Amino acid sequence: MNDTKKSIFESAIKIFSKCGYNGATMDAIASEAGVAKGTLYYHFKSKEEIFNFIVREGMELIKNSIEDVASEKDNILCKIKVLCRIQLSLVYESRDFFKVVMSQIWGEELRQLELRAAINKHICYTQSYLEEGMDKGVIKRGDSYLMAYTLFGTICSTAVYELINDDKGSLDQLIERQLKYILEGIQERK
């Protein structure tokens, strides 16, 4: 991504997060990015095109971050932990992107359908890790697609937890606690 598109990407996330999709304007995005409106229109025809771009690029950045670290791990359970850790970290570090995604997940407009397709693609990516874990005997056999959605939902709920509780604890501690619940469950073992 070139510098101009990167600036538009980051600025659009801020504006969509702050104003919502309906309140965001091309003028506000151009102003935040420090580019002329003509430059913005040179790269993107509409606000919806910008929205779809930030979703595609944002999801690709998440995937690339996971793959960069997970590729260094031999153990599939370590890879799954990396997947969870990076996603949980991104909820905190990329709070605005997360807000944009979650605010537009419901509805039947084209951008919302495309957003759900991008999330489903990410879920399928997560599913492949879980299936590898099942094949290697470290994850219980079951509906890997549902498990991937459950994992995604658990990670999303962490953002809600943080938003409501404004947890002042260490991010690493919160991630470790969350990983323990994800991987070991909440049932007491006797």
TrEMBL record:
SUPFAM superfamilies: Homeodomain-like (SSF46689), Tetracyclin repressor-like, C-terminal domain (SSF48498). Coiled coil: none annotated. Keywords: DNA-binding. The keyword Transferase does not apply. Residues 25-44 bind DNA. Residues 2-62 form the HTH tetR-type domain. It comes from the Bacteria. The keyword DNA-binding applies. This is TetR/AcrR family transcriptional regulator. It comes from Clostridium tanneri.
